[in-house]
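Why does residue order matter? Because the sequence determines the fold. Keep that principle in mind as you read this record.
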Amino acid sequence: MKILLTNDDGIDAPGINILADELINAGHDIIIIAPDKEQSAASHSITLHQPLRILERSKDRYAVTGSPADCMILASRIILKNSVELVISGINGGQNMGEDILYSGTVAAALEAMFMGYKAIAISLAAHVDQMFETAAYYLAEMLNKGLHEKIEKNEILNINVPNVKREEIKGIKLTRTGNRIYKDFVSEQKDPRGRTIYWIGGARALWLDEPGTDFKTVSDKFISITPISPNFNVERSFAKIDNWINNNNPGLFEKR
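Structure:
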């Protein structure tokens, strides 16, 4: 299968390169198009006010001087001469669960691929130190061998999170929903060398609501979490009440005074 790999950790990050090796060994045809440097928490930003460069590192290996979403735009419009069957964003160093999917460049790259008409998967390893990327790479290759990518529907991606344990410690795979993060000590205050106050966002250890059926609970129990997600921002349950409010207030709001 022809697969495009991207990420938000940068083209030299271990996660994407370990995954590439695993997929090549499994017989897949791989092209890498990723940021030239780390773009973690870039979310779905695109670069509008400065030019982008495409740096060809080697055959089928391109670094882009922009965000993960930029990578997919240039991949689709400029770099790819032939289409790919699947886009995989990752393996990210660190989980992408709960509200973190809104900040994640890893998830954003997969969503941008979806917008471009590709089937896409975002995959993350739930650890920032002592990372066992080989576990996530192995199981993703196995899941593709079993046809997981064929189950991806139009206008959705699969967000996969893998526990940071040895391969034999993985207990299985579970379908999950997106959990909720607890934001505690999310901003830290420090002093710079001149005594001025500065702030760091996101330095605290992530805390999660331990709810059954969520990505966090599943990963903490040493199962691989698969969450189908879609960028649908409509709250259907609220349409009737807002429509009723509009119908009741339209005349009065626009009376001339």
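The longest helix spans residues 239-253.
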